[in-house]
């Protein structure tokens, strides 16, 4: 099934760089229908503009025009009201019913303080801040997305990770939040009919982005740092393009059931 053939609403969080930028780029490239709308979210307007330019350049001039909007939003403090307002603004003057499908890619994420051990992460202020960025905002956005597009078929993608299902030393923040996100989306998947709301927890593999650079630099897990260093130096670390193309193949093949956790390496 081609999810991007018909008139589509697409929202990507963390679209300013890394996997999110590539998701926005590759998915937009495949949208062929006049009236589709792409919404990019991040904190850096400059980097969101670069993503928008990359999309426009990739589509060329002889293609149907795609509307691309971008909004800056700090996920550490964002509320349901902010997401509702943002969706309202992006849909101004647009009849929702004319879309055939709405897609959200919950991609934005941070790795947390990886210099600490699990026994040391007891600062509730810091935990709340981290969970707000990576869990509360994701769930709040998802709720607003479900409400606004209740009548449309929806595809909901959570950028997951192997760390959601396997513990890694130094990654207590990250592993716990990603496990929580996976479970939230699994619950959503068992509650909603999959023909109307299809959910995918996609683990992209280890990708050459700022996130893995940070892990390599700051983790106290020397084994993990060495593995990333080795992959980077030997140029075997996956690229954002490789993982997004795999993601598109997973979607196309439709061998997963709603709510499944699918890894790049599966
Ligand atoms: N890279 C990997 O190997 C890997 C592996 C497994 C899973 N993942 C997952 O894939 C997703 C993308 O990872 P990535 O490697 O592409 O990360 P990245 O290069 O660090 O990009 C993170 C994105 O999240 C946004 N973001 C971060 N903090 C934010 C905040 N407080 N408010 C709003 N936006 C914020 C950033 O935008 P701004 O800075 O512009 O705000 C950026 O666009 C994450 O969910 C990550 O957990 C990555």
Automatic annotation (TrEMBL):
Its EC number is 1.1.1.153. GO terms for molecular function: sepiapterin reductase (NADP+) activity. One of its GO terms (cellular component) is cytoplasm. Keywords: Cytoplasm, NADP, Oxidoreductase. GO terms for biological process: tetrahydrobiopterin biosynthetic process. It is found in: Cytoplasm. It holds the Pfam family adh_short. It comes from the Eukaryota. Homodimer. This is Sepiapterin reductase.
């Amino acid at each position: 099934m081609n999810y991007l053939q018909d008139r589509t609403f697409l929202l990507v969080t963390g679209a300013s760089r890394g996997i999110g930028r590539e998701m926005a780029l590759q998915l937009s490239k495949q949208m062929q229908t006049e009236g589709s709308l792409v919404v990019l979210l991040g904190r850096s307007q400059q980097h969101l503009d670069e993503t928008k330019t990359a999309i426009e350049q990739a589509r060329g001039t002889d293609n149907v025009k795609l509307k691309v909007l971008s909004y800056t939003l700090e996920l550490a403090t964002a509320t349901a009201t902010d997401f509702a307002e943002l969706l309202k603004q992006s849909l101004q003057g647009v009849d929702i019913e004319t879309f055939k499908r709405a897609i959200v890619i919950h991609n934005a994420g941070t790795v947390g303080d990886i210099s600490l051990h699990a026994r040391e992460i007891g600062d509730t202020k810091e935990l709340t801040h981290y969970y707000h960025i990576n869990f509360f905002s994701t769930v709040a956005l998802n709720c607003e997305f479900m409400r606004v597009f209740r009548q449309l078929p929806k595809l909901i993608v959570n950028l997951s990770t192997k760390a959601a299902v396997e513990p890694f030393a130094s990654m207590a923040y990250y592993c716990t939040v990603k496990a929580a996100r996976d479970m939230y989306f699994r619950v959503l998947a068992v509650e909603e009919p999959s023909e109307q709301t299809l959910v995918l927890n996609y683990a992209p593999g280890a990708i050459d982005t700022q996130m893995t650079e940070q892990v390599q630099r700051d983790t106290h897990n020397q084994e993990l740092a060495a593995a990333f260093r080795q992959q980077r130096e030997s140029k075997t670390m996956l690229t954002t393009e490789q993982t997004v193309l795999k993601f598109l193949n997973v979607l196309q093949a439709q061998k997963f059931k709603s709510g499944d956790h699918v890894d790049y390496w599966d």
